[in-house]
Amino acid sequence: MDGQSTERSQDLYETAERVLPGAGLGGYALPEDVRFVIREGRGGRLIAVDGREYVDFVCGAGATIIGHDHPEVIEAVQKRAAKGLHFFGTLNDAAVGLAEFLVDNIPCAGRIVFTTTGSEATSYAMRIARAVTGKSKILKFEGAYHGNHDYAAFSQFPTAPANYPLATADIGGVPPALRDTMLVAPYNDLETVESILSEEAGDIAAIIVEPVQRIIFPKEGFLAGLRVLADKYGVLLIFDEVVTGFRLSLGGAQQYFGVRPDLATYGKIVGGGGPLGCVAGGADLIDATNPNRKGRADYAYINGTLHGNPIAAVAGLATLRVLAEPGFHDDFHAKADRFRQAFQATLDDNGVPARVAGRASFWQFLFTDKEPANQMDVLASDLPRSGALDLELMKNGVFVLPNVRRFFSAAHTDDDLEMALEALNAACRG
User: Fold this and answer.
1) 140: which of 35, 50, 270, 424 lies 20 to 30 Å off by Cα?
2) Which pLDDT value is given to residue 8?
3) pLDDT tens by residue, 258-298
4) Which residue, 211, 237, 242, is CA-closest to 226?
């Protein structure tokens, strides 16, 4: 790196410290000894303003499944941008084209309604469930992340088991009155779910679940069991597919695990990295958002300036068409398996008692002797030690967020793997 680029980097840090809280974007502010400012993304790597390259396993929080600069996505965005960046108040052809693809490929979708983000999508899915059922409570799972809105803020970052089903807000600024509308259960525990439903089902509109909760995969029969229990007790089942959608398979977790929810929420990949999300479900449920219902008690109002943004729509459709190519997911999962196995072998060779937790393209280093089944299993691992390992990785040119789930992308190459393994070797010895 040259002196000019280093000076530019320092100038940006100083500006960020002055104008951004914690000199970060959103919920992450990196320590000074590992922080960097991104200049561009190429394939599975990031290039900082000082010229340093990083293998990127954050992948835009999972959005950039085919890399940062896939030519088909870039071309679609460039062509569309010349026709106008944004419209509002009526249809645009790009949004209609993406909506058709989504309905054709999401198993539970009779219709979809657009949102701007995955967080909006989960909030709106809860609203739809409440409007349709006339019931107010939502059952979620301990440690599940459903976005940044107030209803998602309960038992999101727990440090101890909840007094099930009582939920506790983990952040400030959440009205105490909302606590009575959210219930919590441990993930992968059907017995506790049924116990809660047997007492509370008359007030519960829906169960919302991440089919893969961060890096925790469902036990055999768990998701199918939720479907059975939802039907038995007359509540809706919502899959939060903001992360799993199109990553596990083209039909997402619904196709991968063979369980169909009533509603499903999407973000990230659905917009190809652009500002777009959606809620999918049967027409009888999604039609609760039909603007012709305004004034009715069962109308679920959904509206946003950027809903159906044409730039995000063409980026999303271009991305999804790549994912729809024959053999894409088989090849993708095989690569992910190979990368995870290589990481595990490196840890073992260095005598580091950590595991590469997760499956498919979801992974994270955990110092534990078993694959976690719920959030308490994750908390029982040595998180300070795994966080320290992650920071050492960053110092050696691999971008991960400490103690946060990360991803592989289809754009990662064997050269990226070799660079990451060299960094992991150095981190193990650091």
Assistant:
1) 270
2) 87
3) 999 999 999 999 999 999 999 999 999 999 999 999 999 99
4) 237
- Give the C-alpha distances (Å, rounded to integers) separating 66 from 32, 354, 410: 30, 28, 5
Residue 161: what pLDDT? 85
d(CA 406, CA 58): 5
Structural domains in the chain, sorted by start: 3-62+341-353+376-422 (3.90.1150.10), 96-307 (3.40.640.10)
138 forms bridges with which residues in the sheet? 182, 206
> 350-386 burial, b if ≥16 CB within 10 A, otherwise e?
eebebbbbbbbbbbbbbbbeeebbbbbbbeebeeebb
Neighbours of 3 (CB within 10 A): 8
Token pair of 128 as six digits:
């739809």
Taking residue 252's Cβ as centre, other Cβ atoms within 10 Å add up to 26
The model's pLDDT over 373-423, given as tens digits with 9 standing for 90+, comes to: 999 999 999 999 999 999 999 999 999 999 999 999 999 999 999 999 999
Using alpha carbons, select from 253, 172, 216, 260 the residue that is nearest to residue 381.
216
> Which residues make Cβ contacts (< 8 Å) with residue 83, sequence separation at least 6?
310
* Angle (CA) 349 351 352, round 5°: 110
